[in-house]
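Quick one, T. Sequence first:
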Amino acid sequence: MPLQTLFFDAAGTLIQPAEPVGNTYAEIALRHGIVAEPEVIMLAFRRVWKEAQPPLHAEGQSAEDDDRGWWRALVGTVFGRVLGAPLEESRLEDLFSELYLHYAQPQAWGVFEDVVPALDDLARDHRLLVLSNFDRRLRSILAGHDLMHFFTRVIISSEVGAAKPHPRMFQAALAAGGCLPQRSLHIGDELRCDLAGAQSCGIHAFHVQRPASGLGALVQKVRSGAYSGLR
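Structure tokens:
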């Protein structure tokens, strides 16, 4: 069956931080009197991110705080490991608030070079949606890069109340797209969240691995009809 709807992951697929996360964290931390090397922060961030359980709320409930509390806890854990002791609550709140606002700004993010050409092509005859483990900040980020007009819907985990690879995310995408799993394709950069999550719901999946397998390769696969079981 021909594809009808394409779901795109956001961070790591459409956009990426404009500068390394460790650099940004170190620069902002310094303004709050916290001295830490970017490389040390980056190492701690990667480990904490890998260990963290994604937000999950009761069926039918979204995150009342847009998952801000989850991000705050993650940042607190990162700096606790970097410094060897937890930050004071007031100090953590000030630091986290600045980091949170920073990553709400479009200029904090860059768009991969292959994104706009691919979306231009695929939007001609497919319905495109964003399906992301993000929060409401994502909409202003995409709008700031003039990407929102490509997508009929932006589905985010903080509003669904679950994060990929939870089936509720993919079920929400199918409902929003009004499409069958076998006529849908999810595109993302993470094996577990994007590929395994989509395929567990019967949705075709494409693994973004730049530079070998970027969105240019995706377009070629879709146009040739060779999208079944994409890796």
